[in-house]
Structure formats: C-alpha cells, structure tokens
Amino acid sequence: MREKTKNDKLIVSSQPLFGKHNYKFMFFGLGSIALGFILMSGGGSDDPNVFSDAIFSWRRIRLAPALVIIGFGVQVYAILSSPKKD
Predict the structure, then answer these.
(1) 50 or 73, which is more confident?
(2) Using alpha carbons only, what angle is made at residue 65 by residues 59 and 67, rounded to the nearest 5 degrees?
(3) 60 closest CA partner among 40, 35, 44
(4) Cα(45)–Cα(70) distance, rounded to whole angstroms?
(5) What is the C-alpha to C-alpha distance for residues 56 and 52, in angstroms, rounded to an integer?
(6) CA–CA distance, 64 with 55 (Å, rounded to integer)
(7) Taking a C-beta distance cutoff of 8 angstroms, is the pair 53, 78 a contact?
C-alpha cells in the first residue's frame, strides 16, 4: 500500500497484501475450479461416425459447472475478505 506524505514522498508498506486465511481460500477455490474442468473433460467417441451419449451425463452437465461456479465464488470471497489480524 502506498501513501503520499506532505512532501510527496511515497511510503511503501511492508505488510503482505493477503493473509494466511485468504490464501487458504484461494487454493481451495483453485482446486474446485480445476476439479470442475477435469470432470467436464472427456465423453467423446473414438469413432467420429458413432455418437456417444456419454457427453450428456449428470457429471458433465450439472456437477462440473457447479464446482466451477462455486470455485469462482470462493475466489471472490478470498480476494475481498480482509486478512485476519493476529
């Protein structure tokens, strides 16, 4: 964080931007997003002339997008929450 003084000199704060609490939630959110994208992958057919219904499974249509959205919500919370003061 930078603050201007009367003499227009910048004072740089040595405090970290995020705390341990924030980083825990960030890693949880990233894991949730990654898991959602992994669950969305696949479902194709080896033969391009044969259609596979596996692409319409509950895991790819409901679960994976929900995990991705939850992960982004956790990321927003992790960024906007103030770090805990010990």
Answers:
(1) 73
(2) 90
(3) 40
(4) 29
(5) 9
(6) 12
(7) no
35/65 Cα distance (integer angstroms)? 10
Closest of 25, 19, 23, 27 to residue 86, by C-alpha: 19
pTM assigned to the model: 0.76
For 21-72, the pLDDT digits (tens) are 999 999 999 999 999 999 999 877 778 888 878 888 899 999 999 999 999 9
Rounded CA gap, 42 and 34, in Å?
Answer: 14
For residue 35, which phi and psi values (nearest 5 degrees)?
A: -65, -40
41: left (phi over 0), alpha (psi -120 to 50) or beta: beta
* Helix intervals (H) in the chain: 20-40, 58, 64-80
* Structure token digits, residue 60: 């790819």
